[in-house]
Write a structure and sequence with these properties.
Elements (H helix, E strand, L loop, with lengths): L6 E4 L8 E7 L3 H8 E3 L13 E7 L5 E10 L10 E7 L2 H13 L3 E2 L4 H8 L5 H12 L3 H12 L1 H25 L6 H34 L1 E6 L6 H9 L17 E7 L2 E7 L9 H16 L2 E7 L6 H9 L4 E7 L9 H5 L7 E3 L8 H13 L14 H22 L4 H19 L5 H9 L6
Parallel strand pairs: 1-7, 8-10, 8-11, 11-12, 12-13
Antiparallel strand pairs: 1-2, 2-6, 3-4, 4-5, 5-6, 9-10
Helix pairs in contact: 4-5, 6-7, 6-14, 7-13, 13-14
Bound molecules: guanosine-5'-triphosphate and magnesium ion (MG).
Guanosine-5'-triphosphate binds next to helix 8.
Amino acid sequence: MIQEDTISAVITAPGNAAVGIVRIGGADALKIADIMFFAASGKKLEDYPSHTMVYGFVKDEKGAAIDEVLAVYMQAPRSYTAEDVVEIQCHGGMQSLRHILRLTFLYGARAAEPGEFTKRAFLNGRIDLVQAEAVMDIINSKSAAALKVAVQQQEGFLSGKLKAIRKELKDVIVHLEAVIDYPEEDIEDVTYQEVTDAIRNAKEETESLLQGAHTGKILKEGLRTAIIGRPNVGKSSLLNTLLKEDRALVSEFEGTTRDVIEEQLVIGGVPVLLADTAGIHDTEDFVEKLGVERSRAFLDKAELIMAVLDGTQPLTADDEAILTAVKGKNTVFVVNKTDIAESVITEALAERVPRKNIIEISAKTKEGVDLLENWLQEYVYGSNRQSDEEIYIQNERQINLLRQAQESLTDAVNAAEERLPYDCLTIDVDRALTLMGEITGETVRDEIINEIFARFCVGK
Ligand SMILES: Nc1nc2c(ncn2[C@@H]2O[C@H](COP(=O)(O)OP(=O)(O)OP(=O)(O)O)[C@@H](O)[C@H]2O)c(=O)[nH]1
Ligand SMILES: [Mg+2]
């Protein structure tokens, strides 16, 4: 499905850099390059074997040299888009790049739209939609773990898994249709059992993929976490300790932090959006009151709460109010200041909340911070911590489609268990198949494809 137009764009980031790259893709890429590129050897680019780096100059329409460059021709289908591609590496200043780009337009290329190169790779069947979306995730990765997931997706881990599930479901449909077309009473029972097992199996595999989605989303977007507690328990000290930087003011006075301080950091490999908040308590001070309101708002919108308590003092009424406020939320209870004395509240606390969610630390000496890191890793990865085989879907579109597919499969399993007519089953299984096909792009509509690629940057 080779596209007609030849397109070009600067594919490196704007700004001054040692090297910048202009990519030309499409049927006329080589022809256009050979008008403007002059190899030092005197030969044409087309005289060299594909994928050879050639040294030379780009000259403008009057024959004036624009820049000293390296050019490489990548013959279809062994290129990013699976079409003919030429890339010209020049010096990374905007002037040189702009001139070279202008010449490509002059000789017949048009400006590539955002994501158009990757879209062509998809339309030409070199990659599927999951892999195309992974390209963007690789570029936007916020942590090493998120990058690893994106690269796995690019390599086709998820696509392979989905393909296997879809194959299973296609077999079910073929099986069902055969029975609908040629009903033979005596094979009914066997068929029902086989079909039900196959659908249930596909449903379970889908569920296990969805379990990884929670991890995937955190790795991609960061775990939204709020440090909450009454004044002076050491919330800001904890933020500073985790950040390894004196970011927030710390003092022995209550109400030091009045506004929310948000920081992005990686704790034990987990990207976290961490908010230090004002101590929650009853106060008459107007500004402090506003701060407390903000803290409560963050408490509501965070996925995870780090509830900090002062381990050297018995639980106070303010602590109690916080324990009530975090009920039903994912919370790790951080008992602080263990360097001063052994905690006097851990036992009492353990009667109210699971012991495994209580971590004793000293924000001052950093003792116990490793336990908090371990807790976070366990929270994010569950028991299958950072296993290489695990698939963590991190794309919202893919997760939504997979959820719907899983619902259809649940309907199908129920229909099979109730021994509803075969066509009822077929409808549900078919829907699940279509939804999964939308993830990889096999059954997706053009508008959706356009929408996905429009979110890419120019040059990708
Ligand atoms: N010994 C000891 N002192 C600590 C520890 N953590 C905090 N502190 C002290 O406790 C006091 C309060 O610490 P902050 O971090 O400002 O407490 P906060 O919870 O942010 O307080 P507000 O912002 O007022 O709500 C300061 O004097 C800190 O030095 C700790 O682990 N050990
Ligand atoms: Mg503070």
